[in-house]
What does this fold into?
Amino acid sequence: MDVKRDILWRVYLSYVLVILVCFAILGKAFYIQQIQGNYWRGLSDSLHQRIISIPAARGTIYSEDGQMLSTNMPQFDILIDFRVDPLHDKKGKLFRENIDSLSIALADLFKDQSSEKYKDDLTKAYEASEPNYEFKKKIDYRQYLAISKFPLFRLGRYKSGMIAIEKNTRLNPYENIGYRTIGLARDENKVGLESSYDTVLAGQNGRQLVRAIAGGVTVPVQEGEFEVAPETGKDIVSNIDVFIQEVTENALKKMMIANAAQTGVAMVMEVKTGKIKAIANLGSIGEGRYTENLNYSTRVTEPGSTFKLVTLLTALEQGVKLEDNINLEGGAWSYGGRAVKDAEQHGMHETTVLHAFEESSNVGMAKLAVGHFVPNPQAYYKQLSKLRLDSTSGIDLQGEGRPQVTRPGDKVWAATTLPWMGFGYAIAIAPIQTLTLYNSIANNGVMMRPYLVNAIKEEGKVIKSIGPKAYSWTVASPNTIKSLHTALEGVCTNGTGKKLFANSLYKVAGKTGTALVANGTKGYAESIFQSSFVGYFPADNPQYTIAVIIINHPHAANHFGASVAGPVWKEIADRLYSTYIQNKMEVAPSFHLKDSQLFNYAISKISLKTISKQLSIPFKDSSVGNDWVQVQGVGSNMKAVSQIIADTAMPNLTGMKLQDALWICEKKGLLVKCVGKGKVVNQSIAQGQAIIKGQQIQIQLN
It folds into this structure.
């Protein structure tokens, strides 16, 4: 009996202890959940939530006429949390009622798979209750707006489970046009204006509380709410003209492909202001393909014959006259144990300084350097400093190389250094510096700082304007500048550019250049030539200065400045002249004449015959085999003369109805701008002038 009591006592005690332990556990659970719940939930959240930096949207880079050159484009990653309760309520009624229409809408929008495939994929993810199903990545804003209105998704995040994670991507709407100048900010290695104005464009990053989900993805705890809101960067307005940039790049690329060139750069500067309107940098990536891989406009190289302008300028400042005599020694001259040779053994001896420059004589320029500066080289270097050829141009692009100038006392200085500098060797400068130099001559001696950005904007308002800046009001005396104008025009009328500009509708002042350049450790053995043409136009009222520098492939047969760089220069100038300069001409006053008065108009010969027959008005036909004729006369006395409509020349539109003028111009690929109503009385492209597809013409109607 005692044994039984003892056993029962032990059992009851154990039972009571178990009951007490259970109550203790329940009590502790209640205490943790109800009393300490907020503390532990906060601790849990702290392990899954964190504050992250939200990148600010970068400012936009605009062209001068307001077109976007580089901007932020929002992209969205779409996730779906299939665990949300509304999707599973009433045995998934909400999901089942919308999945068919949603799948059809998705297939119609994205067109990447069938609606059945969309339905199958979404159903499997739903049945598995996937917490963060990766539905779509990098969709654009238009697509995001569309799907946010689709069945189910339009119910919002907490009913449909759709989560949109916004990201900004930097895009160039014009793709690779001007890439090295405009730049892109897709990584830390920014280039171009994106780099130079990074602090302006960047803005201030914000901070946001997010929680981690599967796959390392984070989503905002409260969508649209920030600890610190990001501050959008400011916009910049560049001087780039998209039309000029396209013309410049296309002209450069066409020649480089034709000549299998290695690298090339072409730049356009506005004479009076120093504004850079276009920079095209192209490098070969093999198989006739080119891309803007490096900024060749700021990389130093031996300039070659375009540097002869400096030698002539410096000599003129020392009292030399263009009409002074100089002996070209037949095209070859020995000095300091080395031979100076002209590009051709022309056989010329006694000639003028002007003619030596026009023919780009190395001998002539070397002799000027020796005769006037070997006894006093500091006079030459003083002029180099005045022309800023011993410092960078100051353009607002990072990475411009400093000129490499050999001076007396340097280890590489030799007796031949100064004469070789006279024709563009033993010195290295960047193409942008050459452009700036020639622009100063075009601008009557006023050297302007080249610049790319003219304004900084915030929310559409200009907060800072950047205007033209003159480095020097006179790089040389007025007489010297006048003589240089004569010499540079002479190159294009009597010298190495004579054939290139033989039929030009405007005066050109410029200089050809052909330089043998080194190829790394191989030196000059591969015969790689740099072809250049730098100049301004119209010479009698300069508006633009253009520089074209192309480095050809080894042993290129066609490598002279006038035949490689020259045609590129001329194509750019022709397009600018017809589009921006010639169109500024004053339109002649219109005379409103009655049909019975003196008339002069164009019409098709078939139409003329029909009208003449129906109205019984005779006309004298002096045209031969033409579809279009020019009708002239007074009253009923009509005379039809030939109207020649050549394929590559501008016809006479005078007297045509707008309908006929448009038909002819558009058939030739011209872009037409009309002023007034009636018949054509004036046209911005003169009759007989060569025309190019895509060229703009303005026609005045009476």
Q: What stands out?
A: Residues 598-701 form one domain. Confidence is low (pLDDT under 50) at residues 585-599. DSSP finds 20 helices and 31 strands in the chain.
